Amino acid sequence: SAVISQKPSRDICQRGTSLTIQCQVDSQVTMMFWYRQQPGQSLTLIATANQGSEATYESGFVIDKFPISRPNLTFSTLTVSNMSPEDSSIYLCSARDNEQFFGPGTRLTVL
Amino acid sequence: QQPVQSPQAVILREGEDAVINCSSSKALYSVHWYRQKHGEAPVFLMILLKGGEQKGHDKISASFNEKKQQSSLYLTASQLSYSGTYFCGTESGDDKIIFGKGTRLHILP
Fold this sequence. Notes:
The complex is a heterodimer of chains A (about 110) and B (about 110). Chain A contains no helices and eleven strands. Chain A is mainly β. The termini of chain A are far apart. Chain B is globular and about 40 Å long. Chain B contains no helices and eleven strands. Helix content of chain B is about 0%, strand content about 55%. The chains are: A mainly beta (about 110), B mainly beta (about 110).
């Protein structure tokens, strides 16, 4: 199974600033995804991070707010831009070949 | 479209059995089951592919009825370590897994 690491593990940010979350997988994977999870809630798919092309966003998420990069088959970043308190959540990176695994998450608090 | 899980929550005594159901209004290619403990990332349990198969390991197994677009997760002789929130995720051929709202399972000693 793939091992996924994320940085930072948590952060507290001021309104209006941006945060970039990094995701590193220990092996090459076909697909990478970014999810958001509010405490006690389900996992909501933000976007599919496509290697070498623009990410594919789900309804309600836009590139200007959540720009995503995927420069190779083991690494991706998610930026949360112009943050507001509503962006406070846990952001999870996920990688998939046959099975899909999750990183430990980044707990973001926006003040 | 988000799959529907039932029940929302279950409380069991150690050694009892539980069934968690997952249904979708869309045709499914695969169903994925995860367990998440508080403060941790979801942990992959198993994947069931189109074909109506049943899988299992240890005392946890699952079935997938593609015609009914339903899957069930079976936990037999539950252990304290089984406590957590169980999520089913469904994929409809577009490589994206959409998760249900989860089923909270609490095992009492």
